[in-house]
């Protein structure tokens, strides 16, 4: 395996980690105004992700840094072409972080309600835009022979991309609802379970529609390099979503969370398998595609980065596992402090 391919796989793993972990706290943020009926319940909902939400975002920073270092041409083209969408996502993430930190600084209901809705929008906007970005990467965007994006913002808002955005929005919401069934008790638990049922079937149906649409718009089932493997992985992701409902019916909350997690892992894997060896597809001319070869750094840089990455990764994973283990218990409304 070449270093170019290895780093493409590592970036895929980083995005899997990001969507898997940040996905459920996006979902929790989206559900916050609806699951929590009063201030104490909303505080309990926030507390389920309070110790981990900011650590989850580090996966995105690491993935972005890895793209910049390993595939600078990919980074330059994607961040310039998707600039406005990424700017909107950044604003949403900043508003979300501010809301988490400032919500409890004032007891006035209006103040707290404002920041609850900022958490909602700060979670929903990235959840939607990530699907739009992924769908555009799969379908292709206007890139010229000089690796420059030559389209506009509204080129990104085509029907296929918007359907992809709806998929990630719904799947992350389902992931968050299932996470809340795992982390809450009493009425919050029952409301989270009900939300999982309502969102689950819609998310599964829209995901199946997106896969069917992908057959027409991408190489998901006909990749010249990996064959039908991406399509098989996408189908397995859909089956994982269906299994979530069956497991919830049996009150196997932990396995339900594993099921939604597996669905997200498989979806991201299918995206990267569909793309390979491309990192961005040109809708103007396939010869202008950005690949793991023409968009990569030099071999020496990739070699040094590989040594650093494999030295640091075990430490990061150990800390992450320790954090989730320490904060593994359920959150009760009665345990939430009144302030």
Can you offer a commentary on this structure?
This protein has 339 residues and is mainly alpha-helical. The protein has one domain (3-335). Helices cover 74% and strands 1% of the residues. It has helices at 3-35, 39-49, 53-70, 72-81, 83-102, 109-139, 159-183, 186-217, 229-249, 253-275, 299-326; strands spanning 278-280, 290-291. A two-stranded antiparallel ribbon has the order 1-2. The radius of gyration is 20 Å and the shape is globular. The mean pLDDT is 90.
Brief overview, please?
The protein is mainly alpha-helical. The protein has helices at 3-35, 39-49, 53-70, 72-81, 83-102, 109-139, 159-183, 186-217, 229-249, 253-275, 299-326, and strands spanning 278-280, 290-291.
- From the alpha carbons, calculate the radius of gyration and give it in angstroms: 20 Å
* Strand residue content: under 5%
Major sheet size, sense and barrel closure: 2 strands, antiparallel
Uncertain segments: none
How many domain units?
1
Look at the helices and sheets and give the structural class: mainly alpha
Q: What share of the residues lie within helices? A: over 70%
Total number of strands:
2
SSE run: HHHHHHHHHHEEH
Mean pLDDT: 90
Record the strand order, biggest sheet: 1-2
